[in-house]
What does this fold into?
Amino acid sequence: MPAPAPHKNHKVLGRLSLPERTFVADALRTETVGGVLLLAAAIAALIWANTPIRESYESVRDFHVGPAALGLDLSIEHWAADGLLAVFFFVAGIELKREMVAGDLKDPRAAALPVVAALCGMAVPALVYTLVSVTGGGSLAGWAVPTATDIAFALAVLAVIGTSLPSALRAFLLTLAVVDDLFAILIIAVFFTENLNFAALGGAAVGLAVFWLLLHRGVRGWYVYVPLALVIWGLMYNSGVHATIAGVAMGLMLRCTTRKDEGEQRSPGERIEHLVRPLSAGLAVPLFALFSAGVAVSGGALGEVFTRPETLGVVLGLVVGKAVGIFGGTWLTARFTRASLSDDLAWPDVFAVSSLAGIGFTVSLLIGELAFDGDQALTDEVKAAVLMGSLIAAVLSGVLLKIRNAKYRRLCEDEERDEDLDGIPDIYEQDNPAYHLRMAEIHERKAAEHRRLAEVTGGASEGNDGPA
It folds into this structure.
């Protein structure tokens, strides 16, 4: 009787394929720039809201504009949260679709890691918030506030501290954030939808069906899709479902696979994401931060963050819950799938990235506004807690990552080295016999040049030392 085949061991957070590495690098480059703008907008909002010109901030934020007849007479703050963030979630929808059809989420076994890590990274912060609130007699309405991760802000922190994080860890963080966004969207749709207007919801559904049909028929032209998208967004807003859901739905409808028989170099989803992502990262999200992060911060207010159960639950959920949840989910996945961590990394690296995911800025602020709608004082306190929790998570992860920065720098240098100058990093060619032949030729050529140089130098020395 033959022995049973051993379970094939696979690596957790192993090296990416070259195409996936290139895609991740391009995506993260834009996210990093957007994160720096987001950070600048948040700082500007805090300065504006804590200076003698605070009244001007409130006047601009609360100024109403829009057609009242269409139910869209909204404040600037609401336009930023419901309108501009729809662009952000549209890009998130495209990212999710790409991950499902061409990325890490396509393979169920590979998808298990980020999905389980993201679920644990949302469940544990919600549990931490609930325990703190129940113990302190606070409101449970904010349980979802610490469940979100802000990938742009997290990458901005990486850019500031200059950590050369390996591409595998960056890809894990990006995929984790995409899955995190999906569940955050579901939370918003399920738990923060009240008083449904079924006529408007039906109209939005019809609009989405038309949107899909036009895409399926290959109709092109921004002048067709942009007006239709605005109509769908307006109907979704008036339906009672959060308007950002419209952005996600349209993003998920885009095709993210290429048709090689038609000579496509990039899918429609990739082309549109390339066009819209700068608008999302460079305008939509920073403006949302500008009009959402402006809370009055004083010594007394910061003290209340650590004494009120709702705000303390948010801080502990982001700082402790996120790190423990994501790290625990990753370890459990590796444990029960008989996987081992990549040889280049250690479990402290995973914990450092898990703590970085505790930066829950954009979506956490949005959920905080939804959870405590009608109580402006508590909303502002929860926003201050989100800012404080995100700051603590950023500092903690920055210190942890800085400790290993020398190791990360060596890994990045190995990933970038291209001694044969063929445009492909050497680390991706080590199993190719042709690569070793080229390298042997290069080394022989360099050795010959060194010998010639030594001969010339030696001959010149002998000539100089001889008699005149």
About this structure: The chain is about 70% helix and 0% strand. The chain has two domains: 14-193+242-416, 426-461.
